[in-house]
Every structure is written in C-alpha cells, then in structure tokens.
Design brief:
By secondary structure, the protein is an alpha+beta fold. It is about 30% helix and about 20% strand.
Length: about 70
C-alpha cells in the first residue's frame, strides 16, 4: 500500500497467506516524488521485508499493489 507519505509492504506465504514480514519506506506517489524516487522507495521496502526474513529479494508467485497517483 503506497501513497504520498510512505509505502507499506507485507510478504506472505502463498498457501496459508500468513504474513511473514512487513516493512515501510518513503513515498511512492509518482505525481509527488517522480517515477525514479517512487520506484526506489518501493524496491527499498520490498528489500527490507526480505531482509527481515534473512533473505535477498527473490521472484514471487504474485503481487498485489494499491498505489496512489498511479493513474
């Protein structure tokens, strides 16, 4: 979930839908911060989530996003 103030990421196990990790980073509203900054902040939040699991970012089975300013 992301917008003009921050982005929140939750990493869940696919079959049980158990949340394994959560993290946050800066804003991702491309109209407020621009595409490059929004992309960096989104990737930072994802990497932080995987880091709390002691893992590097990996390919995932699915992704759901709710982002403000996307269109």
């Amino acid at each position: 979930d992301g917008g003009g103030s921050h982005v929140s990421v939750a990493i869940a196990e696919r079959t049980t839908q158990t949340i394994l990790a959560q993290s946050t980073a800066g804003p991702v509203n491309i109209r407020s911060v621009g595409f490059e900054t929004a992309t960096k902040n989104l990737l930072d939040a994802i990497e932080k989530g995987f880091a709390t699991l002691g893992r590097k970012r990996v390919e995932v089975a699915s992704l759901v996003m709710g982002l403000a300013g996307a269109g």
